[in-house]
Specification:
Layout lengths: L5 H8 L6 E5 L5 E5 L22 E6 L3 E7 L11 E6 L3 H14 L7 H20 L16
Antiparallel strand pairs: 1-2, 3-4, 4-5
Helix pairs in contact: 2-3
Length: 149
């Protein structure tokens, strides 16, 4: 089975697909977002598209304290179950940032997405810190019960 090139796929899906979210900004200017997976900025453009590009990157929260870094395998495009290479990172932020830079730019995977991947990693890591600090301790002091006499 022959695979379809990315620019042809983009020409097919750029005007209308199920992931497209159109919103009106200032005046009549349209802002286009997308909900597709493997899109780092969630913007509707060929550069960040997870549908049209054979090499894509995903950075998501994994549980309470981990960050999932997934890259697509270029030779397994027609097998969705094994199309992604996933790795969970649970180290401090600097080590995770170095791992993302090594995987994305230094490994010659998609060097043009280095800043976008680091921005997404920063946002996901910040959201995990907020959820971890949001837990409040219970008050262990005895409370007085006012009853009838």
């Amino acid at each position: 089975m022959a695979t379809v090139p990315g620019p042809v796929i983009w020409e097919i899906v750029k005007k209308n697909n199920s992931f497209l979210v159109k919103q009106f900004g200032n005046g009549s200017a349209k802002v286009r977002f997308t909900k597709e997976s493997n899109n780092l900025f969630n913007t509707h453009s060929y550069k960040y598209s997870g549908l049209a590009n054979p090499k894509t990157i995903t950075i998501q929260a994994d549980g309470k304290d981990g960050v999932l870094l997934a890259t697509s395998k270029t030779r397994k495009q027609n097998k969705p179950a094994i199309a992604l290479h996933k790795s969970v990172m649970k180290k401090d932020f600097q080590r995770m940032a170095n791992a993302v830079v090594n995987q994305v730019a230094d490994n010659h995977y998609r060097a043009d997405l280095k800043k976008a991947a680091l921005a997404r990693l920063s946002a996901v890591h910040r959201s995990l810190q907020v959820t971890n600090s949001g837990v409040k301790k219970k008050n262990r002091q005895a409370t007085k019960i006012c009853g009838r006499k």
